[in-house]
Write a structure and sequence with these properties.
This protein is α+β, with helices and mostly antiparallel strands and 311 residues long. 34% of the residues lie in helices and 30% in strands. Helix 3 crosses helix 4. The longest helix is centred in the first third of the chain and has 18 residues. The mean pLDDT is 89.
Length: 311
């Protein structure tokens, strides 16, 4: 078991990146979320409170667990080969790896750890319970097919948008994002570095970030994203982030900016759209449902208290 933290993690980041890439290729789909992926793959400085843990045997990596700073707590993700049936790594060893990463995360000053578990990781609940984690949030992935009728409807109700202007819109996008997600553990509290890592990502396309301005200021945006086909899914267009300045809640702007994003996906990316939304966000779930989206699958966040507050 090897656990490392701090800014000087270039070697560990490289090993972890290679392992994640190989494991995802084996699974035939993406495993790591963008929250950790952009940190792992970015050429920018490593966050000083990033933690990477590896279970290995005779020099061969068997599993990787990473904890990256979020907004108010660290976000944990675990990558294990053949994790669908948990044959590659015994549950006890996986639990030891996560516990070691949790201990190191407490050492860098974090008080809580969020572990997002995808629907296909049916081995994870047993480990989470064994580590005294508690379920906190449920995430819905919603999808829809974008027919010609849908695209016409969205064009008629969409608010006016333009592609993001990297030179002038960054501060506005950050402001709207952080106001809209003030209490969100992953999306809230973005810094310019957090945003820049995403702008540096190979999948970034400025035309896919639709911004709505009033008097020259960004007051809403819908960031869409292309997902290439995998063994499990065809080409998908994702509503990656949608945010409206809270001063404009209740005006219909949320519906208009989502419609603009869905119209853009249908016109420029794919005929299949998807997004993630907190199950507890009834207003957003109801909006997406009214626009024609349905639940594809559910994911769960487990929370572990760290340090002196750990159970």
């Amino acid at each position: 078991m090897l656990v490392s933290s701090g800014a000087d993690l270039q070697s560990e980041r490289r090993v972890a990146r290679e392992f994640v890439t190989a494991t995802e290729a084996e699974h035939g789909h993406s495993i790591l979320s963008d929250h950790l992926r952009v940190i792992l793959e970015s050429e920018r400085d490593t966050p000083p409170d990033l933690v990477i843990g590896r279970a290995h045997n005779n020099g061969e990596t068997m599993a990787v667990a990473m904890a990256a700073p979020g907004h108010g707590r660290h976000v944990l993700e675990v990558v294990i080969p053949h994790a669908h049936d948990n044959t590659a790594l015994p549950s006890a060893l996986a639990a030891q790896l996560i516990a070691a990463v949790a201990d190191e995360t407490a050492e860098v000053g974090a008080h809580a750890l969020n572990w997002w578990v995808s629907a296909h990781e049916n081995w994870a609940d047993t480990i989470a319970l064994a580590l005294s984690m508690r379920p906190e949030r449920e995430l819905l992935q919603m999808r829809m097919s974008l027919t010609e009728d849908h695209r016409s409807e969205f064009a008629s109700i969409a608010c006016d948008t333009d592609s993001i202007d990297i030179g002038s819109d960054i501060d506005g996008v950050l402001r709207v994002n952080n106001r809209a997600f003030a209490n969100h553990p992953e999306q809230g509290g973005w810094t310019r570095d957090d945003l820049s890592r995403r702008l540096d990502a190979p999948w970034f396309n400025p035309a896919d970030v639709r911004v709505h301005r009033r008097d020259g200021d960004v007051i809403a945006f819908c960031w869409t994203k292309r997902h290439d086909a995998t063994e499990h899914d065809g080409l998908l267009g994702e509503i990656y982030v949608v945010a409206v300045d809270p001063d404009n809640h209740g005006t219909g702007l949320g519906r208009g900016i989502v419609a603009a994003g869905l119209h853009h996906i249908g016109a420029a990316i794919s005929s299949e759209a998807m997004l993630y939304v907190d199950a507890s966000n009834e207003a957003a779930v109801n909006l997406y449902t009214r626009l024609g989206m349905g639940v594809h699958h559910r994911e769960r966040a487990w929370v572990m208290q760290l340090g002196s507050s750990r159970a």
